Amino acid sequence: MIQFVIISRIKLKKQLRCNWRSVSGKLLNKESILKETPINFNEIPGPKSYPIIGTLYKYWPFIGEYNAEALDKNAWLNWRRYGGLVREVPGVNLLHVFEPEVIEAVFRQNDRYPARRSHVAMLHYRLSKPSVYNTGGLLSTNGPDWWRLRSTFQKNFTGPQNAKQYVENTDDVVREFVKWIRDSKLSHNEDFLIYLNRLNLEVIGVVAFNEKFNSFTLQEQASESRSSKVIAAAFGSNSGIMKLDKGILWRIFKTPLYKKLVESQQYLEKVSMDILLNKINFFGKEHERKNNSLLESFLQQPNLDLKDIIGMMVDILMAAIDTTAYATSFALYHLARNPECQQKLYKEVANLLPTKESILTSDVLSKAVYVRSCIKESLRLNPVSIGVGRLLQKDIVLKGYLIPEGTVIVTQNMVASRLPQYVRDPMLFKPERWIRGSSHYENIHPFLSLPFGFGPRSCIARRLAEQNMCITLIRLVLEFEMKWMGGDLGIKTLLINKPDKPIKLSFVPRH
Ligand code: HEM
Description:
It is a single chain. By secondary structure, this protein is α+β, with helices and mostly antiparallel strands. It is built from 21 helices and ten strands. It has helices at 2-22, 27-36, 71-82, 100-107, 120-127, 143-157, 160-164, 167-184, 192-209, 218-221, 226-246, 249-252, 256-282, 286-289, 294-299, 306-337, 339-352, 362-367, 369-381, 413-416, 462-479; strands at 85-88, 94-97, 388-391, 396-398, 401-403, 408-411, 480-484, 491-494, 496-499, 505-509. The longest helix has 32 residues, at 306-337. The N and C termini lie far apart (85 Å). Bound molecules: protoporphyrin IX containing FE (HEM). The site of protoporphyrin IX containing FE has 26 residues, from α16 and α21.
């Protein structure tokens, strides 16, 4: 009898799982049934977990088959071996979610304060410096403290008009960059990523702080210059975050990686403070009042103090440079490898800006449909992060399994976006698949590709970042035909996905 009950229970669970797959859109109707018989988290397929070390051994050199700098490859392995829901236990409960319907269910939890478990060591460092910071900043803070910052800062970022006011300034910087490429006759043997980093520092400097770093001068290209050190400190902060999130030794003594994070943070702090003090001294003078930088608007917010603003300035320097430079690198890579797409892009842009004197306005950008779909398509294939992380704040049921509060969920959008069941010819770069009305248009699941995350915790600067990329692609393609001179490009997952080889491009002037 007992045997019969157990067998029927297993059958029921299996049935529920099957049903769940086939009617995955109807989450709420199923949830009530599933709640009664949720399957234990530990039964979710995944690598074998041992006491104390969990599945951490999988990342150990020589023994493990996972590589912390190749999270995309680990994810492929997991997907092939275990399917759409994969459990890992590297110190915390970790759940990888691959199917867009289930990714949607994760984001539809409607948490008041969506949370991430990341930047833990940075949070620790900032909280140990109350004379400089009030909180860990937007990237690392969770709960009501995060919302206090987010709801205030986002007023300056997310409105449709906010990004538009920076089109002219950004275009000026990008045009200087294009001229610099032309004049300096860049060789394709150089890594173009270095210059995209400099470009994005200049753009964010002007937009966020009304500050020029003059990164392209000879002095600034030296390694000890301010711009070189800011770029290195942003990278030094970001590249250690993920290893420190996984590690515990830094909590006991200052490991070399923790020291590097601290040094990088200190440099970004110093530069931010210098800029801030400078602006405050000039604040009130007529010429300064006219500038519309983000910093100026932060200073006018009554519920922010200088410590909040320093935290945000450091976060901006950390979050803006590498992300936009990597995303632009991949967009150029795909365009250079797909000359017919590049030609289509050129045609659209040349039509929108027919003469050298034509001005690039927000109106022009809104008509640049092909440019935007090239960016979307490039971010589908090569998002800046493999997926999005969320820290679960209550128990939920996914595909019949009980996922306990405190689990870290990683939505595996990069792998899912390359699967043929969700996208036609997924490995091809086809911007047309995003264009309604095109014969190649595909009705792609809205939770498949989420390069800027989702919901109230999504990228605060999405519009700005997309706009900066649009302007860069437009100006480059107007001036040059770009050819790819390297091999296949993969990624190194250092929190964000860095191209694993140099960006080798040849720029052939169009006229
Ligand atoms: C192509 C460029 C960029 C990409 C692909 C990108 C992507 C992302 C992603 C995936 C997140 C996490 C979203 C989530 O958890 O749902 C994020 C958060 C964030 N991004 Fe971006 N980002 C880019 C550029 C920028 C820029 C230019 C800035 C600053 C000016 C910025 C500032 C931030 C901040 C502060 C957060 C944390 C938001 C929060 O937790 O409330 N990002 N970004």
